[in-house]
Amino acid sequence: MSPRGGSRNPTAALTRPPDSFSPQRQAVAQAHARDLGDFSRLADAETFTREAWVEQQAHSLKHDEHGAATVVKALAHLPVDQATDRRTAYHARDTALNYLTKRLNQIQYAAFQAQGFPIGSGSVESANKLVVEARLKGSGMHWARPHVNALVALRTIACADWWAEAWPHIERHLRDHARQVRARHRELYESRLLFGPRPP
Questions:
Q1: What digits encode the pLDDT tens for the residues 39-69?
Q2: What is the 3-state secondary structure (H, E, C) of the chain?
Q3: Burial (CB count within 10 angstroms: exposed 0-12, middle 13-18, buried 19+), residue 64
Q4: Short-list 15, 23, 10, 14, CA closest to 117
Q5: CA 91 to CA 72: how far, in whole Å?
Q6: What is the spatial distance between Cα 118 and Cα 103, in angstroms, rounded to a whole number?
Q7: Rounded to an integer, what distance in angstroms lies between the CA atom of residue 98 and that of residue 58?
Q8: Residue 92 to residues 56, 69, 80, 87, 185, Cα–Cα distance (Å)
Q9: Chain-centre distance for alpha carbon 195
Q10: Are 13 and 153 in contact, with CB atoms under 8 Å apart?
Q11: Is the pTM of this model over 0.70?
Q12: Using one digit for the tens of pLDDT, what is the confidence trace for 73-129?
């Protein structure tokens, strides 16, 4: 069991890409709410208060259970038709809508916070430097691309102090893999004895 009560499969982490290994990496875009201010500035209606709108959407996105959907709906109803430059305003709004709609699952900040995950990017950016780069970018280090994901998974387990829990699962996985390789080699060897070597 994990410290937060969820189950983990450390063996599976060896084959998963780093982005899926860490749930925190799916919650690093809190600044999107502030970016909405850039789009709201294009709506020039006299009755439209930009600062209040941005604050409202930022609060909803961070604290409300359905905040992401609420923000997308509010963005869709911006009074861009009253903007001085309607073409630019419509383009900016549609660009923002497209960007946020594709990432709805990644900006469920209230749900992430309820599960104990950070929603700022600082911890992830710091972890990339202290966890990933410190292990992979040392002087004279060179890595084959197929080996990087597994190494990052092991490094993450070690830095999270999960090694004692994870290693038995990893060792079992490695032993099973080695057993399968030996069985495959044995099959190839026996087939050559029975049928002879393949012609060149």
A1: 555 555 444 577 788 888 888 888 898 888 9
A2: CCCCCCCCCHHHHCCCCHHHHCHHHHCCCCCHHHHHHHHHCCCCCCCCCHHHHHHHHHHHHHHCCCHHHHHHHHHHCCCHHHCCCHHHHHHHHHHHHHHHHHCHHHCCHHHHHHCCCCCCCHHHHHHHHHHHHHHHCCCCCCCCHHHHHHHHHHHHHHHCCCHHHHHHHHHHHHHHHHHHHHHHHHHHHHHHHHHCCCCC
A3: middle
A4: 23
A5: 15
A6: 17
A7: 18
A8: 20, 18, 9, 9, 60
A9: 51
A10: yes
A11: no
A12: 988 888 878 777 888 888 888 888 888 888 888 888 899 889 988 787 787 788 888
- Total length of the chain: 200
All structural domains of the chain with their residue ranges:
25-114, 147-200
Dihedral in degrees, nearest 10, Cα atoms 23, 27, 28, 30: -170
Could you identify the residue written with the tokens 């959907």?
Answer: 69
